[in-house]
Design a protein that fits this description.
Blueprint (H helix, E strand, L loop, with lengths): L1 E6 L2 E5 L19 E4 L9 E5 L4 H7 L3 H11 L8 E6 L5 E2 L4 E5 L10 H9 L7 E3 L6 H19 L1 H19 L20 H17 L1 H15 L2 E3 L1 H12 L4 H9 L5 E9 L2 E8 L6 E8 L5 E8 L3 E7 L6 E4 L8 E2 L1
Parallel strand pairs: 4-5, 5-7, 8-9, 10-16
Antiparallel strand pairs: 1-2, 3-4, 6-7, 10-11, 11-14, 12-13, 12-15
Length: 346
């Protein structure tokens, strides 16, 4: 709002931010920059790239993905929360840092090949979740990192298809499985070791919880839940219970068990499976190690005559036997064919 020159060699600039911000996403970047403002202004929001002059051609091209990503999230979540969005090449210690309206990306993000599209999507999604809506305490960090991770996969799915998204969900599931094998911490975690929260629990498992919630309530209600949550807590703070209350109100479902087992309880379902075919009946034995989780398990069957069927089995106990009538002794089947369930198969 003002600029003065205290000395011939210095300039003092005074900025004023009219939109409330969490202190964790306040930033200023100082360097010799090459600057480009893109012609596309989603919702009237100016979008720009700030890169090192030597990288300007590559950087302007790479960050040129930003307007379309911003538009996608605005269409699916709600209006962009800030007056502009700058994408800044920087020396951040992270791959990206979601500073409000001025995202810092690592120097290596500029390649000239647009190879970091998912990184851009993740940090831009944070403008809604993590920035405009911030968690009340770091115990609820998944409301930032899980949301940004989910919406990165969601963006990739809508742009490149479900098969590409399934690959990402499978990779994220592997990350959670590996982490859960050596950690006894839940997603909502009141640890005082704050850096330990930057883990697959907050990112990949948090994203998986949203992915499973989407399948639990349906995509239409899920997006309404997210949009309502954003609208209600924009420019403020929320915790997991706030999101749960909105999800229950809109879906009309009691989600207490869902939130308790996936967010407040450590670990994931660890399954053991056996099968047999006998007397024109397919037997599927499912056992869980430890305290059982409750979930729906989808299984696709291709029968001997080529018939294809999908079954949904309600898993509630430590051990189950599910049966499917078949013809013949040969059955091909696929567990969780659409990658909807977070679990480990032993």
């Amino acid at each position: 709002v003002a600029e003065t020159n205290p000395t011939a060699a210095t300039t003092l600039t005074h900025w004023k931010e009219v939109i409330p911000q969490a202190t964790k996403v306040m930033v200023i970047g100082v360097a010799q920059f090459a600057v480009k403002e893109y012609a596309q202004k989603p919702g009237g929001v100016p979008v720009s790239a700030w890169v090192y002059p030597k990288d300007s051609t590559k950087g302007f091209y790479d960050y040129g993905l930003t307007p379309n990503i911003l538009q996608f999230f605005a269409d699916n979540i709600g209006p962009f929360p800030y007056k502009k969005l700058a994408n800044v090449q920087s020396t951040t210690i992270f791959g990206g840092m979601e500073n409000a309206s001025a995202i810092f990306y690592a120097e290596s993000s500029v390649t000239g090949t647009r190879s970091e599209e998912d990184l851009l999507a993740h940090e831009i999604a944070h403008q809604w979740f993590g920035d405009a809506v911030s968690e009340k305490s770091f115990a609820h960090l998944w409301l930032s990192e899980g949301f940004a991770s989910f919406f990165t996969h969601f963006y990739i799915e809508k742009k490149y298809g479900k098969e590409k998204a399934a690959e990402r969900w499978q990779k994220a599931r592997e990350e959670v499985v590996q982490f859960a094998s050596s950690s006894s911490r839940p997603v909502v975690d009141s640890t005082k070791d704050l850096m330990s929260l930057l883990s697959p629990n907050s990112y990949s498992k948090g994203a998986w919880v949203l992915h499973m919630l989407r399948n639990e309530v349906g995509e239409k209600d899920f997006l309404t839940i997210v949009q309502t949550y954003y609208r209600q807590f924009r420019e403020g703070n929320a915790e997991t219970g706030d999101f749960k209350a909105i999800a229950e109100k809109i879906s009309g479902k009691d989600l207490s068990l869902f939130f308790e087992q996936w967010l407040y309880r450590p670990g994931i379902p660890v399954l053991q499976m056996r099968t047999k075919v006998q007397a024109d009946t397919f037997y599927l034995y499912i056992d869980q190690k430890g305290k059982p989780f409750q979930f729906t398990l989808e299984v696709d069957f291709v029968l001997q005559d080529g018939e294809w069927i999908r079954k949904q089995f309600a898993v509630k106990e430590a051990s189950h036997v599910f049966t499917v009538p078949v013809k013949g002794s040969s059955v091909n089947f696929s567990l969780d064919p659409d990658t909807k369930l977070l679990y480990e198969m032993k």
